Amino acid sequence: MSGGQIAALIIAILLLLPGGCFLISGIAFATDAQFWDASLILLPIAAAIFALAGLLFWLAFRRRPPRDGALDVPPP
Fold first, then answer.
1. What is the pLDDT of residues 10-67, one digit of tens each?
2. Nearest one of 53, 49, 62 to 5, comparing CA atoms
3. Sign for the pseudo-dihedral over CA of 64, 69, 73, 74
4. Does residue 29 contact residue 12 with C-beta atoms inside 8 Å?
5. Whole-angstrom Cα Rg for the chain
6. Residue/partner pairs of 42-47 with CB below 8 Å, 24 or more apart
7. pTM of the full structure
8. pLDDT score of 74
């Protein structure tokens, strides 16, 4: 794993906390008739944070293509 992949993994893990808080708050406000409008703001914010975290997880765990000189095949 490269340094950039480790940084992406750490940031993605850290983004799960605010995304979860926005999601729980949005669901809680959606069940209350007085604050229903607030859920229309909180839920898309939670979705955007989770989408960013998903992108960072994908960047952290994707495999890089091998370079031309670094093939795992032994020479003949």
1. 999 999 999 999 999 999 999 888 888 888 999 999 999 999 999 999 999 887 766 6
2. 62
3. negative
4. no
5. 20
6. 46/19, 46/20, 46/22
7. 0.77
8. 60
